[in-house]
Structure formats: C-alpha cells, structure tokens
Amino acid sequence: MQYLQPWDDLEDQEEQLRSRVNALTTEQKKNYYRQQAAQLKDPDTYASLNWLFLGGFHHLYLKKYRLFSIEFSCLIMAIIGLCLGFHYAVYLLIAIAIFELPQLFFSQKIARQYNYQVSSELLKKIMS
Question: Transmembrane stretches, by residue range (predicted)?
Fold first, then answer.
C-alpha cells in the first residue's frame, strides 16, 4: 500500500476506473457490479477494526491472512513474555505499535486502495 499517495491521485484513479466501467455493455456492467458488490470492503469498518482491536484483526478483513498470522503471533509472544517476566516483550510490543501506527492513521486510504485494486482486477477479468 502507498500510505503517502495523495488523495487526489487516488480519486483520479477511481474516476478513470468509473469511466472505463461506463464504457462496458449493459450486461458487462451488470456482471461487474454484481461481482464488485461481493468483494468490496467498507473503509469505515476497516478503520473501526483498526482502532478497536489489537493484534491485526483488521488484516483479516482485507484478506491479508499471512500478515495477520505474523502480527497476532508476535502479540501472543509478547503477552506470554510479559507474563513470564521477559524484558524483550516490551520491545516486541513497541515494534508492533510502530508497525500499526501508519495503518491506524491511513486506514481509510488503505481500504479505498484495496477496493480500487479489487475493482481494477475485476474490470480486467470482465473485459477479457
């Protein structure tokens, strides 16, 4: 994901995608929108998951299973480490927090970029 991509660029890309979708036949549009509705993710839901749950559960929402596994495993190791009195656990928690901060503040953009990517791939599939 490009966290620092300007909003205007993302909106321009979305507008270009809408223009290409409008050029489709009626049957293709119907097929496109039906498939798109099943795959798009709500940016507000992603942002809420990001703000409310620690441990990377928001990655599951965007189907990033490997990233969720890694982050959740690190969180579990940190919690176990804290319970056992290991000092490394604090550093692991700090690392998780530093990793999560950009995702936390750019959650709306991340979800919109995901939706754009899904929509673009779907359009390519429909057009071929």
Answer: 45-62, 74-99
| Confidence band, pLDDT 50/70/90 cuts, at residue 1 | low
Tell which residue, 40, 72, 46, has the closest CA to residue 61: 46
pLDDT tens digit string along 21-77? 999 999 999 999 999 999 999 999 998 888 877 778 899 999 999 999 999 999 999
**Alpha helices (H) along 23-106:** 26-39, 43-52, 57-61, 65-84, 88-105
Domain boundaries, the chain: 7-127
What b/e string do you get for 50-82 counting C-beta neighbours within 10 Å, with b at 16 or more?
A: beeeebbebbebbeeeebbeebbebbeebeebe
| Contact call for residues 42 and 128 (beta carbons, < 8 A) | no
